[in-house]
Automatic annotation (TrEMBL):
This is Cyclase family protein. Gene3D superfamilies: Putative cyclase. It holds the Pfam family Cyclase. GO terms for biological process: L-tryptophan catabolic process to kynurenine. GO terms for molecular function: arylformamidase activity.
Amino acid sequence: MANLTLWEQIKELKSPKYKWVDLTHELSPETPHWFGFKPLQADLLFDYAEGTPEDMMAPMRCIQYSVASQYGTHTDVPRHFWGSGRDMSAITVQELMYPLVVIDKSAECAANPDFMLTVDDLKAWEAQYGRIPEGAFVAFRSDWYKKPNLDNPDENGVPHYPGWDKAAIQWLVEERNIGAIGHEPADTDPGFVTTKEGAYPYPGEQYILQVDRIQIEVMRNLDQVPPVGSLIVIGFPKLKDGTGFPTRCFAICPVD
């Protein structure tokens, strides 16, 4: 008799004891994305033909999409910033599922759009919820996905959006050995860092990729996920030489 334990586990996870939360923006020309990218373009290659099946030249619809690698909800892999880093085809299937930790700083980000998540914030979270587990995916909830413009520019066009302090990411890697991070804005680092003159603009993103981790940007619906106890599942193409790609990710959460 075959061991059906995994099948039973799937049945359990799909029961009312759990909820499944889509953490992904719909992919379209209107999808929130980094300001430097063009909107997704869709070109119709074949369309449903009229007439009887015998007359049909193309009884299906096929579309060719053109989209930037870091468009919408997307995964960044080490090669995005490091030529010798792993590409998308080198990311193992074991790296597509993690325990999910959600650090909620949405109130702070509402009060201060330039909010930066620090080591002290992580330690305060642990004092309330317990130690961040090894191999976890740590998501920074800001509720930024609700913004009509991720850059949130002021009257002078200067962007204001929250992000990670590099030291916080470094602490998560070196002290907790986490597996990945994620956030809702289009950058890892806050806007006042990415726009700072005379400095490398992406220290946090540079670091997380340099230490051979992946990250997900432009996430959504983290406000529907509890701080602890959930899983995150990630899917993207096994793209040779790929630096990143639009991603479908979701959380499986216990229902209180």
